[in-house]
Each structure stands twice: as C-alpha cells, then as structure tokens.
Design goal:
homodimer; about 500 residues; elongated; 2 domains; Rossmann fold; alpha/beta
C-alpha cells in the first residue's frame, strides 16, 4: 500500500472555535467577492468534486459550502440513487446533465469516481476495466478543463483508526444509524484506500489536481476546503488568455484542394429504378423489424447525417425515420445553440439528446460542426478544433460503452451536381426556402471543406463509430445505400 | 351510450391511390409553407394530440405527419413507458417537459388523456376522480391556449365491427403480433368508447376542440388529418391581436395603498436572544429529522420564499437549507429566464425544477413574479396577470396532487425597516453588492406592491399551498418563525 498520498496526519491540537471564527469571516468575504466576479465574467465555471472515505463528514462540508457561498450561483448535486433514465444511458450522461453553466459553481457530491472505485473494491470489475474507466475520466476532465472549467477535486481522508473511532462513537451515541456505505466499507478500509490511490494517481493532472484533506479535525478540514476553493476561484476569475480569433481556414495551395478519400468515391453509377424500389422497400421493412428488436434488447442507435449542402440529407433522413415506428425514433436537427447550450461545453447540447435504452436518434448535422463549419469559418481557434478530434472520439466511445450503436454518414455529391441542385431550388417556388446566401458561401469554400473532411475521416473513423461515405449524385441510390448500411450495422450489432 | 360523438360512418368507397396523391401534393406544399411561417414568426407553437381507439393506425398517421412536415421543426414524443423520474413527479411533469417551444410543432402520441381514461376503463378510479382529472386537463389546456399554443386534438375512431375486422386480419396474416393494448381493449370496446365520450365532452372547448376522425379508410383518414393540421397552422400564423403593453400598475388613490392583510401583521415584537437560539437549534434538528423521514416516505417538499427586498430571504433560506442534508435539498434562485425558458409558457421554467420524490426544493422567488413584478412593472398585460391567479392555483394543485408538500412564505418588513437596511447595505463593503438601483425603484412602488400582494393573499391561499406571512423586522425571530412553520407543516403531512 502506497502511503505517501494519504500520510497519517500528525496529531495536531484541535482548532478552537474562536480561531476558526476569526479565519472564517475573512475567508467568507473573499469567497463571496470572487464568486460575484465569476458570475459577472460569465466565462468559466467551477466544479467541486467531493469524495473520500466514509464518515469523513463530506455532507457537513457540503452544507458548510452552501452556507458560505451565495446560493444563487451554486448548484449541489448528489449522485447516489441512479434513476432508470440514468441507468439506461451511458454513465457519463448523468454528470453531463448537471454540469454547472459558465459563471456558476457546481458541487458534485459523489462523482464519476464513485462507481468505478466501488466496483473495483468489490471486485465487480477487473483491473483492466478499472484502468479503462480512469482513462475515460481523465479524457473527460481534460476536455472540461480545456473549455475553461476549473476542477476542484477534494478527497477527504481519515486514517483507519480515526474512522473506526468515529464509527464507534456514532454507534455508541446513537446520534444516527450507520449508513449502508459505512457498514459495507468498514471491513474493507485497506482495499478501499489502495484502489482509491490508484484512481487518484491515474487522474492527478495539473489541470485537474487532487487535494487530499485530512478530515480528523472538522474545523481544520472546513478551513482547508475554503482556502482551496478560494484559490481556485481566484484562478477562475483571472482574465483568460484566449487565442486571437482565427482567420478562416484557407486551402493550402492555390489549386483546389482535394480529399484523397473523397476523390476515390465513385459518383457515376446509377441504378435501375425498379431494382432500387424493391431494395428500398426491403431495407425499410428490415429496419422496422430491427428497430423493434433493438428496443427489446434495450439497445439504442445514434445516426449522424452530415453532407454537402443539397446532398439530400433531409430526404435520406425521412426515408429512415418514416421506416421506424414514430414512437421509437427521434430526429434532432442541429441549428444555432440556445443560450443555455452556449453556457456549456460544446458537447453538452449533444449529450442532452442521448436517448434512453431502446430508441433511435437521428442527428441532422452534429458535433462534427466543430471541425467543419467552425473550423472553416474560423469560429473555433486552431487549438480548439485540433483537440476536438480527441474530444469527439471520447464522446463516441462513451456512447458505444453505454451500449449505443453509432453510425455516421457523409452524403457526398460532386460540385457540379450541387450547382445543378442549387439552381433547381432557386427556380422552384416550393423549394426556394431551401437555398440561401449561406449555401453559396459554403460552396465557395468547397476546397476548405475538403481539407477539413480529409482530417475528419482520418482521425474519427473509429470501429465503435464508423463513417460511411455515401455517393449521392444519384438521390435514390443514396437512400438505398443509407438504409442498407443501417440494416447491416444493426443486424451485426443485435 | 351517446352515439352522436362517434357516429358509425357511412360506407364510403375507398379513396383511390391517384386521388390521394393529387390531394397530397397540394396539401404538403401548404403544410410546409405554413410551418415555415410558424417558425419565422416564433410566436406560437402547435401541439398535436394523437389519441383514439386501438388499431386505428395512430402510428401510421404520426409517420405520415413526419413525412409531410419539415423534421427540423417537429418533435414527436411517445408517452408510453413512464420512467421512474416521471413516476416520482406530478403526472403533468412529463408533458410539460416535452412541450414544443414557440415556432415549432409537437406531436404527442399518447397524452394527458391516456392514463385517466385507462384507469377509469379498468375501474381503478372512481367517476369523481375521473371528473377531477378532466377538470385539471381542461385547466391545463386553457392556460396553454391562452399562452398562444394552438391545440389540435385528434381522436381516431373505428366502429366496433371495423376494429374487430382489423384485429382478425392482423391475427390471420400474422403481419405483427397484437399489442398488449389491443388485447386488453378488445373485450372492452363499449366501455372504452363510453368513457372516452365523457372525456371528450368534458374537454371540448373552443380553444381546444376535439376532432373525431373516422379511421376506416387509411387514405381518407390521413387527408383529414392533413387538412385539420393545415387549418390549425393557418390560425397559428395569423397575426395575433395582443393587448397593448400595459402601463405600470399605479395604486388607485393618492394616499399610500395598504393591504389590510399586511396591515394586520404585528411587526413590533422581538424575542429574547437566548430563547430564540434554543428554538432555532431545536427547529433545525427537527427539520433534519423530518427531511429524512420525508425521503423515506418519498414525499417531496416545495418551499417558496417571497418578500420585500432586504427582508432577509437569503438568510432565512440558508438557515433552512443548511439544516437539511445537502443531498436532499436544492435551492433554485429565480432570475431572468433563459431563451429556452422564454420560448415556453411562463410556468415551464418552474416545472423543470419540480423535484423527484423525497427531496426538498426551495425557490428563492417564484412563479409569483407573474402577479408581482410583472404586474407592477406592466410586463404582463392585465389579461395575463388576471388569469394568472387561476394558473398559479392550478400549478400548485398539480404539485399537491403529486404528493408534494407546498409551503409559501412572504417575509414582511415595514418600509422604515427596509430603508434602514438599504442604508446599512450601501455603507457596508461586503454587502454593497446586495443593493442596486432596482431596489430603490421597487421601494418607490411600495403601494403598488401592497395592492398586488393583497390580491395574491386573497386569491392564492389554498389549503394545498398556504401562505405564511412572516413578521421580519426582527431577523432572528423571522428565521425561527420560518423554521417552526416548516416543521409544523411537515409534521402534519408526514
């Protein structure tokens, strides 16, 4: 057992009430001041993770923080009883839905550490699985920190003897019954500390450091927390050095850039109408059947549609969604984010649409906007879009780990075909609304998009969430291609 | 059995494919056009409720609508499997969380009618309970319609023989198994129709009319739905006659208006410090115990704090929230609504914070803003705030029917005491942030607020959600008063 992380504390004399009160007043003033600055800036959020051994007084600490801080900017969330809505989604979902928006403080009582540690302590997960969980936690914290969230990770420690003394005192005075956790962990103290050490070691990073707090003396403990929080708030309100706004991406050479992957797509073939009709019918029937089977098996499906403007996303989505019972399928169109969404990490607004077990969710455009339009138009800095490839892969891996089948489509048309469709839309009374100045502007950036796409296909084609590039000059052929790909994918997965 | 609502349809010849296609094209163009106008205006929403007898093809209709409409403005929600998060809240919660925002269309597959009808059909509720449910549904629809939601209530009807024929055909061809609902309702056709007739009669209103659609012929059925929807969309995009912006409320006479109820409050008494400290301690301990008991009994509590500026809401809330385990208590400060909230009925943003069973939620300001600041400042029209008294009572009754204990506090100080506190705040470095121009402006409108308050206490003091007016010139006395009231309320309720 490594002991350097949790040294047995020297026996300090208890901190007196008067000493505590004197420090508390100054601390509280500072905390309130900084909290106000955090809110006024509205740029960053603070996330306090409260964890540690049982009986260390975590609940008391949280109450103290709620007393010290202005309740209007603090949200305390206890993660203890998982609801079925949470159980039926990837583990990370319940945490994402409670993340504090910019300008505010979130206190997580229990966190993404709890379940992995508990499962490992009780040997319900292997060391490899545990390490895998910790690696995903590290990814998650990295992406939150990169987005400006200040992470305050508190670990409350109590030596074995001190814990035992506290439990005995509790039992003797009968102030309250031992919680089920206290009973279960009492006999597993050493294993719990060993596993926790592994967790802390694997996730201690400069952007998300652990603070181990000796919980033996209540007043010292609370003051320590207050000071750590204050230091974090001071960091959070410092003006951020943000990279300058980027110039839009420009293709690197004067010659139109091509994506070798897209260049290899054969756009010429068209098929017989009668054959296509029969295949379309068969694939739709199969999809209907498979979606019910997926529901029985409690497996969800997430389908992403990206593609050139006028490539036929809408038509393809309609062919998919209308083949599935309306009760099982939901289409999420991605437009401009709302202000609640803007106040969170850019992945937050996709997390909120992750379906419960057994449903199909279709995204009409998606999280790839980060590395497509935002990159091309210079809305994301180079650092932001460059790290996004990892972040998107992390997100999709989390979905897959939650049992969700992920399939991504890129609907590909040639520039000539797009032009033909634009002109057709402009001259049709019914379709006019489908074409606007933005489409023409995007078209002028075709080469930049090809560059961005080449990176996307190279970096985000993971087995858990493959890309299917659909030749879509032939609209009906493209729809059949989409449907048959989905049918194949679901057949393999179910 | 009343038959006029569901007449047996004359045997019309089936509508041909070509006839259908001809009508469909024109209809679809119109639907898309109007849908776009609806979105562009962003003022009203459309809610389609799909209900009716089993095997009438409701799922087919919903798929057809999804095919006809632009998916980017439609959200289809099937209410079939209630999650535990839904079961643990008032019934209306699951519907509120899925209401379409302004500018969009919601399709509810199953609705607030389903459960009351099913329970009554299977005699799990009495006629009185059923009538009570229907009355609350009528309230709900009235308040949605008043807010600009266009309600399209579709009831798909199939005669007993037609249903039987369809079920037999299904069984014979084995295209799919009968759903559990089809099996259960098959033998109860007549009772189902009788109960449904009662439901339709009780909730048929000019602002929320029922459309009974004969589902015998699929194509006629779908065209009928399309036409009803189109007519509703046309109504929804007509320019609304909104009342002119109101002038701020002004007290009716030159003499400062007084609320007789507030005038009767004795603000003079103050208590001994030692006695108060002991009572505070005892009440906090009792509250801690009661909140655990409430959690065991799965009862939630909603506490509303309203009061004059500087009356000590923050301090009182802190004394309450810190007495309860942080895992059980949440404080919701009500500030300006977000844009997602503004796109919904004003009660929506309170519904989203309704707790799961067993928790305490404290609202720091509340839905009474509608009949306080919004009325006084002229932000709500007279029609809006006048009908709000009913709407607020409906909301609180729904909470109470869901098993939630509701307690409302008004913290009352005299105008002189408020002035003293304002001046104290202005001269204190730590408290300066608590006072701003808005507070002085509100103070100047004291008489208007008294008028509004008199109406509030008169109209919204319902047994399910009583007001407690707390004399708060003496801060510590007020805190004890709040705590002891809560303790009494919880003791009675648990």
């Amino acid at each position: 057992m490594r002991t350097e992380r949790f040294p047995e504390s020297p026996e300090l004399p208890k901190l007196g009430k008067a000493e505590f009160a004197a420090e508390e007043i100054a601390l509280r003033e500072q905390l309130l001041l900084r909290q106000r600055e955090l809110r006024a800036a509205g740029a960053r959020s603070l996330l306090v993770i409260v964890s540690g051994v049982e009986s260390a007084g975590k609940s008391e600490v949280v109450n103290r923080l709620n007393e010290w801080l202005d309740a209007r900017g603090v949200r305390t969330v206890a993660f203890w009883d998982e609801s079925d809505e949470e159980r039926e989604r990837p583990r990370a979902w319940r945490f994402w839905r409670e993340l504090p928006p910019r300008g505010s403080i979130g206190i997580f009582f229990g966190s993404w550490y709890t379940q992995p540690i508990v499962e490992r302590v009780f040997r319900r997960s292997s060391r490899e699985e545990f390490d895998g969980e910790l690696a995903e936690i590290a990814s998650l914290e990295r992406l939150l920190a990169a987005d400006g969230t200040v992470l305050v990770k508190l670990w409350f420690h109590l030596g074995e003897k001190a814990q035992e003394r506290r439990l005995e005192r509790l039992a003797r005075h009968g102030a309250r019954a031992l919680t089920p956790w206290e009973k279960r962990f009492r006999s597993r103290y050493r294993r719990f500390v060993r596993i926790s050490t592994q967790a802390l070691d694997a996730t201690d990073a400069s952007h998300a450091p652990w603070h181990v707090i000796d919980a033996a003396d209540r007043r010292r403990r609370d003051l320590a927390v207050g000071k750590i929080l204050l230091a974090a708030l001071e960091r959070a309100v410092q003006p951020q050095e943000r990279e300058p706004q980027m110039a839009p991406l420009a293709a690197r050479s004067a010659a139109p850039a091509r994506s070798p992957i897209l260049a290899a797509v054969d756009l010429s073939s068209t098929r017989e109408g009668a054959e296509l009709r029969e295949r379309l019918r068969a694939a739709r029937a199969a999809l209907d059947r498979l979606s019910w089977k997926a529901r029985e098996q409690r497996r969800s499906t997430v389908v992403v549609f990206e593609g050139w403007d006028a490539a036929g996303k809408g038509g393809a989505i309609r062919r998919v969604s209308s083949a599935i019972d309306a009760r099982l399928c939901r289409v999420i169109p991605i437009a401009a984010p709302t202000d609640e969404e803007r106040a969170q990490h850019y992945l937050w607004r996709f997390w909120r649409h992750v379906p419960r077990a057994g449903y199909v969710t279709i995204f009409d455009r998606s999280w790839y906007g980060r590395v497509l339009v935002e990159r091309v138009e210079g809305l994301a800095t180079e650092a932001e879009w460059a790290r996004a490839f990892d972040e998107l892969a992390h997100f999709e891996r989390e979905l897959a780990r939650g049992g969700i089948i992920v399939q991504k489509f890129w609907l590909h048309v040639s520039a000539d075909e797009q032009l033909r469709r634009f002109e057709g839309r402009a001259s049709s009374a019914v379709k006019q609304y489908k074409i606007g100045p933005e489409d023409w502007r995007n078209r002028a950036r075709w080469a930049d998009y090809e560059l961005a796409l080449q990176d996307i296909f190279t970096h985000t084609s993971i087995p858990e969430a493959p890309w299917e590039i659909v030749p879509a000059n032939d609209k009906r052929g493209a729809r059949v291609h989409v449907l048959e790909t989905l049918v194949r994918r679901l057949t393999e997965a179910l």
